[in-house]
Amino acid sequence: MTSVQSTSGPDLITPVPNSQSKPFSGLLNDVVAMTRRNLLRLFRTPQVIVFATIQPVIFVLLFNFVFGGSVQFAPGIEYIDFLIPGILVQTSLFAAGNTAIGLTDDLQKGAIDRFRSLPMHHSAVLIGRTNADALRAALTMTIVCVVGFVIGFRTSHFSGLVLGVLLAIFLSYAFNWVFAAFALYVKDPEAAQAGAFLPVFPLVFAASTFAPVDNMPGWLQPFADNQPVTVTVDAVRALTQGTPAGADVLASMGYSAAIMAIAIPIATRKFKRS
Amino acid sequence: MVAVQTYGLKKHYGDTKALDGLDLEVQRGSVFGLLGPNGAGKTTAVKVMTTLARPTAGTAIVDGINVSENPKAVRSRIGLTGQYAAVEERLTGQENLELVGRYFHYSKASQKARAAELLEMFDLVDAASRPAKTYSGGMRRRLDIAMSLVARPSILFLDEPTTGLDPRSRIAMWDFIAKLGDEGTTVLLTTQYLEEADVLAEKIAVIDSGLKIAEGTSDQLKDQIGGDRVRVSIVKRENIAKAREAIASLTMGVVEQDPESPLTLSAPIRAGERVVPEMIRALDAAGVDVADVEVRRPTLDDVFLTLTGHQAEPQESVEEARL
Q: Is A35 domain-assigned?
């Protein structure tokens, strides 16, 4: 190998000392690099940024002004105070769909093949993807809170709001993994886009997100009352209103942890095999 | 020294035998061409050699390392440019290259330095600060190849590096690949074009249905399939015997009369030999008026027709016409 080194021009075949001395032991380094790559891509895609910021704002405004005046809710709570926790959790699920879209896009355009041919930790590809999408959800949630404050959302428990947002991000992260696994199975961006939102809609709407579960038909209530979105919304609501939240917080974290315990191994295994 | 070696490499996807016992040997510092039609198993072979797919059976040794036993070590010695230009469209050329440097844990300064070298080498300096989505197809491919060279791999795999490029970009790309070969990088490229393998590769393996069906230099392959053919069209039919006699000694085999055109003779000639002027002189001396002389180089289709009895590309319209 050394005998054919060129004498002119940049040398192609000398191993870089840098790459040899660091034998890619740092999973953390790889995860940071992949997360940054995904965020960089995200912030260079204007339509994605617009979608991630404008769409939740529209939801806040529409739901508040369309339903806020005409629907009677539990006494003692303004609709906007009821709504913002719902929108936060809705955002976390809608954002998770992007994991499927982003990952299938990378699969189709050959980016994943490139990553797999690099001596990096392959799990960093999926972790970096789900991380970036969770950070994106965090950005969207911050915007939701700001818009909420502007149109009248009030909380006397600011730390509760922060905890609530963290809870919603945790749920979002869990669903990111579900959609990562889904993406690895469907592979096609269009199918991912269509398929990702199918489970999201019933989860978001058959829940306490926008309206109390008590007003729903009896057959729907057992599902609506106990599914992860409802417990998370209820937890965020209780945290922001200062009412007892412990059981719902634990239930929400339990759901997120359980979802990850199933989705992460499935996604990782599929990624390694395909 | 051997850079890549495979023995009895098999990759089955269900009932599909993408690779069915492939044996290859690529010498270090050479450009090796894997030639075959769509679906022959070229991409699968590259995927197995670059650790993207695990072989069903057989062995692949890349840079002295068994891909099944230590894929990670293989990955730090290879570069791969897949069929789709895997560039980040919204990032600039420079950013794309620096990003790869980051994947290899280079320092910021090393990322920049290596990016600058590669931009220079692939003639992308002027486009360095433009987003890759504004690049032409050829520029994207060049950037893609540059990205796979960031860590100075000892072996570069190029999967159909010119598919989808216009003829001018294709020829430009050949120059870049040839330059890599000249500088001592081992390159394994796959292609559907005999001409491309001919121009770039010192050694060519022809594969079909996951098996190697021929191997050699491009001249050896062409000789094996009968090499170039010359077609001579004359003006007067009564001169056909004279014409046949005049060119016979300059050809390599039987001079045939074209069944569809009684004024045309065709015969095999040695690959790359310049017999046309001599042939015209001989015909002129024999008093035969020549309408046209044409040398036809063998194509991948000819290679396939000769070696396998079927054409490289499935020709559905022909099949349908026969029904």
A: no
